[in-house]
Amino acid sequence: MITEKTLSSLPAGVNGPLYDIRKIKNGILHFGVGNFFRAHEAFYVDAILKDDPEWGIVGVGLTGSERSRKKAETFTSQDCLYSLTATAPSGEHSTRIIGCLRDYLLAPADPEAVLKHLVDPEIRIVSMTITEGGYNMDEKTGEFDLNDEDVKTDLQNPDRPETVFGYVVEGLRRRREAGLPAFTVMSCDNLRHNGNVARKAFLGYARARDADLARWIEENATFPNSMVDRITPTVTPDIHEKLNRESGLNDDLPVIAEDFHQWVMEDRFANGRPPLEKAGVQFVEDVTPYEQVKIRMLNASHIMLCFPGVLVACDTVAEAVQDADLRGNVETFLNEDVMPALRAPEGLSLEEYRDSVLHRFSNAAMGDQTLRIAGDGCSKIQVFWTDTVRKALESKRDIARIAFGMAAYLEMLRGVNEKGDHYTPNEPTFKDAQWKLAKSDDFVAALGLPAFDAWRDLDTTALDQKVIEIRKIIREKGVKAALPVR
Ligand code: CS2
């Protein structure tokens, strides 16, 4: 266990916080304290606390599962401290203790405690990493889904919320009533225009609750867009053990990430912000070209690599990218399907970006998992592939790679690889009906999964036929035989 006391006697090579953690005040409340948040936003905020101690973070977990309870207990027993190990593709690594998380609350255990923080005037930013699919948007209508059961429950009991929408809007209502300024709602999820999506979601919920309140939020809160980037694997028991062995710590909550990190953000804060530029955050007028390049190149090729990667029994991304056939397919996808339709931000070469992405994927020491990347594929396909697929369909370009990716995704959902080993695909947004489609052998019906909704208004006859054809080849001859010819 790491605690405040441990900080005075850290093992050689482990860096501690550069500030006195007791002097930190909380300025940010964050929903969704997952590994990515701990390696990204928390890492950046940690780096500026020596300059401005007012931006400590209160973390909030939203689910009441046994696992979440355990996590909350561990955070508390470690004084919310944890180690972050940054690993380069060369294998070089360094470890530091992150101290910016100053409190951790499990929302279902005490909703009032969370609301109390939300009306604390010192909290000036509410940030979140609630995953791509967490914004409860109906992909068909592009609107906030008011038919969601959890949202309905919150709208019926608005002062005892359970969803992030319920909490944030109730918090803002209480601030308005108390004559306090609003806060900035800062989405750190990997979405195109994450701020705009968050705005739509929170205002969608607020409007259903109280139109006046929604107007006040619209006028007083801000929702900056940002591009976030740092590959952060799941910490398996093996990785956990290895991290502690190498650092000499006895951390119950270690995190590992690549050494690369990037955060590009719009400077639109309603109520002040930390001096994040001192930690390397780029503040720009328009994040669109940055997020387009990141999502359509890095994330899109990550899933293009890992859906088939899982099927050919590559456990790690590094193994998958070393497979010449899978890598070749991703390269062709980027060169032929993605890059010609992309506008690069000034000063960035798409060719160099492509090479750096593939180099980052080759980071074997990090041990990032193909199953992690393939997880939540239904939301990821919609976010990462839609622009590229629409362009290809509209301009009647070659759809071979896209069809292969879709077929590999559908085959991956069956939960058995080519060696006959079983695994559990993770699709957090699937209900029984979707699982039924995913597990059935009705190839036509499977194309009705929501993953492919975002281009259903176009003529997809040829694409759909190709997906079915490729699925048959994968079943009969294997993934490699089904790869598009280069
Ligand atoms: C990955 C991302 O989950 C995924 O599909 O592509 O988690 C990726 O590691 C991050 O976006 C990197 O910034």
From TrEMBL:
InterPro entries: 6-PGluconate_DH-like_C_sf, 6PGD_dom2, Mannitol_DH, Mannitol_DH/Oxidoreductase, Mannitol_DH_C, Mannitol_DH_N, NAD(P)-bd_dom_sf. It comes from Acetobacter aceti. Residues 286-460 form the Mannitol dehydrogenase C-terminal domain. This is Polyol:NADP oxidoreductase. The keyword Oxidoreductase applies. Keywords: Oxidoreductase. The keyword Oxidoreductase applies. It comes from the Bacteria. SUPFAM superfamilies: 6-phosphogluconate dehydrogenase C-terminal domain-like, NAD(P)-binding Rossmann-fold domains. GO terms for molecular function: oxidoreductase activity, acting on the CH-OH group of donors, NAD or NADP as acceptor. It holds the Pfam family Mannitol_dh. Residues 27-278 form the Mannitol dehydrogenase N-terminal domain.
